[in-house]
């Protein structure tokens, strides 16, 4: 076996680290080898689920629904006792609602891009890493290197650092470096680049339409910079890059649209050989239709490994999936040598994180972290326009407030959540009425109309838009616009492009995150207690000539 590459970036292992990798690799039994290729989700702490996972013996897990940090560490330690190698424990450390349970409510990437303060991004990332390490997490599927080039994209939106490549580079690389300095391996994503297709790879294979010259100036620049800065891993998305495939095979036909996750040309030829990436490649979630719409699972699961991925992300039936790999080894579609390469890179990442040594307890500065989250959040809400000079709000002038609420919609949550912002307004002396579908609105009864929208980046939803019918409750009300009679403010706590559906709303604010911390920050800005941010990380007017008026 070849282990010498582990001494090179990004692993940079010393002699002891390489020796540990060799010993652990040699100790893996025939039955342990293939299960190590899987990253399985472990929800909660149900004993039956824990035992099921132990019986399968994966090399890594993703945690959802964990308890307090001490309980999380104890659970992971108990798993490691019974497993052949210490676990990589992954999460999406993105801030806002995609954060650890009980952690400080940090802004999401788009909010940080709006602030455009690299020192703030570094400190937010340091705190997230500190809290994650305390809970036993050592691998994050972030930062996102995608470019929010087409505003209708529901999958980039608030998860990325905006539409400007230079801004993305500054903040994403800073986050990656801070994470890895603090013991959290980064998986930059989504290779080979998302954001120029306005569809969602959870639902279909998306396409990066760029020619290779433009790709090199955008995604090529970002991934080369991440590799140069020491990215330990890359997540291969279910995204096609036909221009590169046709560069190699001009008559590629449908193969030009093969997802990167199962494309040897994109993972090995482009990422490893041409960009020089020596780290670990993890697939994006394999239950996604971006992969499943391409071929049968029994076909593409072995292809993930044979095409260059070192980790298979998620499984709805791990025993069936294991049988697919075994069958592919038997008939030659998957080679033992490729499995060896994947296992060695996994072990190399574990050694690079120091998992072969006793782990030091990370202390979480809970109160300090929450205070910082509050302070940085106050600098982010972005006033896009206020053409009627409605702001700041005054409980004397705008006392009677009618709120139209779209509720907060979060991936993985069973139902919508309510905004707390109306309660914050009540605390400041406003009389707040929540609109209901049955309500007959007389504008003489109100001093302010307030629209609250809470769609952050969503998964498995083809579009995010301002649904007037849902917001107002019936056909007639959906067509009514009251801002000619009553001062009106619209606030998006997520998707920053709602002016596309309401270009003439007189006052519009983007706040990017739906957390209570951000809602409180917005109220302070509405009242004039803190200044508004005026920097937009994307074009909130969506290219519309009338939306700025």
Describe this structure in words.
- The structure is a single chain.
- It contains 19 helices and 16 strands.
- The longest helix is centred in the first third of the chain and has 17 residues, at 118-134.
- The strands form 3 sheets. It has an 8-stranded parallel β-sheet.
- The model has no long low-confidence stretch (mean pLDDT 95).
- Helix 4 (69-82) links the parallel strand 2 (60-64) and strand 3 (88-91).
- It has 2 domains: 4-352, Alpha-Beta Barrel (TIM Barrel); 378-526, Rossmann fold (3-Layer(aba) Sandwich), CATH 3.40.50.
- It is of the alpha/beta class and 549 residues long.
- Helix content is 37%, strand content 13%.
Secondary structure blueprint with pairings:
Layout lengths: L14 H13 L2 H4 L4 E6 L3 H10 L3 E5 L4 H14 L5 E4 L17 H7 L2 H17 L4 E2 L24 H17 L3 E7 L14 E2 L4 H17 L4 E4 L2 E2 L1 H7 L15 H11 L5 E4 L5 H4 L4 H10 L5 E2 L4 H14 L4 H17 L13 H12 L4 E5 L13 E10 L11 H7 L3 E4 L13 E8 L12 H5 L2 H4 L9 E5 L14 E4 L5 H11 L23
Cα gyration radius (Å): 24 Å
Low-confidence stretches: none
Structural class: alpha/beta
**What is the global morphology?**
globular
Number of strands: 16
Helix count equals: 19
- Overall domain count: 2
In short:
The protein has 549 residues and is an alpha/beta fold. 37% of the residues lie in helices and 13% in strands.
């Amino acid at each position: 076996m070849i282990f010498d590459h582990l001494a090179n970036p990004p692993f940079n292992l010393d002699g002891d680290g390489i020796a540990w990798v060799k010993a652990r690799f040699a100790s893996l039994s025939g039955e342990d080898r293939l299960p190590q290729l899987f990253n399985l989700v472990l929800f909660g702490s149900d004993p039956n689920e824990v035992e099921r996972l132990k019986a399968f013996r994966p090399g890594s897990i993703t945690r959802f629904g964990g308890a307090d940090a001490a309980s999380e560490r104890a659970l992971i330690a108990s798993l490691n006792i019974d497993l052949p190698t210490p676990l990589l424990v992954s999460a999406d450390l993105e801030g806002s609602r995609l954060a650890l349970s009980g952690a400080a409510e940090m802004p999401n990437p788009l909010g940080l891009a709006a602030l455009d303060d690299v020192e703030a991004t570094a400190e937010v990332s340091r705190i997230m890493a500190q809290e994650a390490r305390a809970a036993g997490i050592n691998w994050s599927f972030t930062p996102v290197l995608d470019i929010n080039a087409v505003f209708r994209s529901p999958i980039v939106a608030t998860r990325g650092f905006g539409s400007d490549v230079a801004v993305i580079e500054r903040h994403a690389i800073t986050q990656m470096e801070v994470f890895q300095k603090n013991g959290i391996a980064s998986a930059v994503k989504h290779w080979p680049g998302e954001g120029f297709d306005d569809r969602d790879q959870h639902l279909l294979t998306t396409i990066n339409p760029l020619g290779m010259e433009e790709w090199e100036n955008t995604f090529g620049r970002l991934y080369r910079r991440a590799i140069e800065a020491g990215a330990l891993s890359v997540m291969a998305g279910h995204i096609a890059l036909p221009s590169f495939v046709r560069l190699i095979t001009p008559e590629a036909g449908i193969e030009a649209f093969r997802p990167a996750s199962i494309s040897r040309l994109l993972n090995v030829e482009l990422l490893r050989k041409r960009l020089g990436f020596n780290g670990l490649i993890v697939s994006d979630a394999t239950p996604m239709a971006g992969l499943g719409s391409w071929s049968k699972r029994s076909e593409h699961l072995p292809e993930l490994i044979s095409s260059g991925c070192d980790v298979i992300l998620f499984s709805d039936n791990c025993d069936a999936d294991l049988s697919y790999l075994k069958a592919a080894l038997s008939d030659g579609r998957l080679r033992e040598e490729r499995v060896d390469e994947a296992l060695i890179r996994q072990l190399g990442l574990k050694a690079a994180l120091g998992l072969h040594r006793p782990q030091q307890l990370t202390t979480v500065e809970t109160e300090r972290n929450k205070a910082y989250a509050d302070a940085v959040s106050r600098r982010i809400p972005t006033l896009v326009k206020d053409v009627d000079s409605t702001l700041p709000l005054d409980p004397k002038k705008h006392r009677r407030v009618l709120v139209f609420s779209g509720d907060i919609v979060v991936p993985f949550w069973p139902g919508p959540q309510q905004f707390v912002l109306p309660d914050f307004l009540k605390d400041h002396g406003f009389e707040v009425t929540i609109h209901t579908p049955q309500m007959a609105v007389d504008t003489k009864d109100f001093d302010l109309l307030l629209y609250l929208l809470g769609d952050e980046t969503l998964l498995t939803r083809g579009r995010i838009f301002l649904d007037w019918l849902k917001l107002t409750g019936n056909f007639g009300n959906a067509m009514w616009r009251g801002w000619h009679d009553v001062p009106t403010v619209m606030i998006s706590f997520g998707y920053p492009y709602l002016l596309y559906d309401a270009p003439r709303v007189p006052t519009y604010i983007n706040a990017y995150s739906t957390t209570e911390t951000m809602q409180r920050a917005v109220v302070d800005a509405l009242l004039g207690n803190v200044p508004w941010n005026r920097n937009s990380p994307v074009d909130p007017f969506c290219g519309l000539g009338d939306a700025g008026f």
